[in-house]
């Protein structure tokens, strides 16, 4: 009887092991993820030549004491900012690789805090034609802010992660340059999806 019990135990362990292997093998490629790293400059120009952002809602106030006069709680800005590569530095003369489109709102009555919701549409490089969606709290009094990657499209579909967001340079009172250091993951594409995007899968 002891021998039969031992044999049954071994058989059960083998069956469990096979089931685990089959379960892992059955996980679709869409459930596995691969890293994405992007480093970009975003040029927010609030007035003058080449303006890329416009106040669409003037907040009723009160005025924000941590900012220059004229900045009210609830101010909402819509943007179509130029995105450039980092190899040429934080200069508007660097190669354009996309546009950052969306809104930011002054969301604190006392601190320079904005709530941001933007889509970065990429128009050059390996992710050409794709986009990534960023949202979160931007406290401009902090050197580095962390915002969330909440989605994407194309090769960045279902992107998830975070962005380290900082003010790289203030060109003038009308032109600020933001650095977006994107740390994200996306699902590993299936062979069919990879071929449709021109990706080689080994």
From TrEMBL:
User: What's a GO cellular component annotated to this UniProt protein?
Assistant: apoplast
Question: Chief localization class?
Answer: secreted
Keyword Signal in record: yes
Q: Which GO terms describe its biological process?
A: phenylpropanoid biosynthetic process
Question: Where is it localised?
Answer: Secreted, Extracellular space, Apoplast
- The lineage's top-level taxon is Eukaryota
Query: Is the Signal keyword given for this protein?
Result: yes
Annotated keywords: Apoplast, Secreted, Signal
Which residues constitute the signal peptide according to the record?
Answer: 1-31
What this chain does, per the entry, is described as: Dirigent proteins impart stereoselectivity on the phenoxy radical-coupling reaction, yielding optically active lignans from two molecules of coniferyl alcohol in the biosynthesis of lignans, flavonolignans, and alkaloids and thus plays a central role in plant secondary metabolism.
Q: How does it assemble?
A: Homodimer.
Similarity remark:
Belongs to the plant dirigent protein family.
Q: How is this protein named in the record?
A: Dirigent protein
What organism does this protein naturally occur in?
Oryza brachyantha (malo sina)
């Amino acid at each position: 009887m002891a021998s039969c019990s031992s044999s049954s135990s071994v058989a059960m362990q083998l069956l469990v092991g096979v089931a685990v292997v089959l379960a892992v093998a059955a996980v679709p490629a869409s459930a596995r993820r691969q890293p994405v790293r992007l480093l970009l400059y975003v040029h927010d120009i609030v007035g003058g030549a080449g303006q890329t952002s416009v106040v669409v809602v003037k907040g009723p106030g009160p005025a924000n004491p941590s900012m220059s006069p004229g900045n009210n709680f609830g101010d909402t800005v819509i943007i179509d900012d130029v995105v450039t590569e980092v190899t040429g530095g934080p200069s508007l003369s660097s190669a354009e690789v996309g546009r950052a489109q969306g809104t930011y709102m002054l969301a604190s009555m006392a601190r320079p805090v904005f709530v941001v919701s933007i889509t970065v549409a990429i128009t050059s490089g390996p992710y050409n034609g794709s986009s990534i969606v960023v949202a979160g709290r931007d406290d401009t009094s902090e050197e580095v802010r962390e915002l969330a990657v909440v989605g994407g499209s194309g090769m960045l579909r279902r992107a998830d992660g975070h962005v380290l967001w900082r003010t790289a340079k203030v060109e003038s009172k009308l032109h600020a340059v933001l650095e977006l250091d994107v740390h994200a993951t996306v699902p590993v594409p299936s062979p069919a999806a990879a071929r449709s995007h021109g990706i080689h899968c080994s």
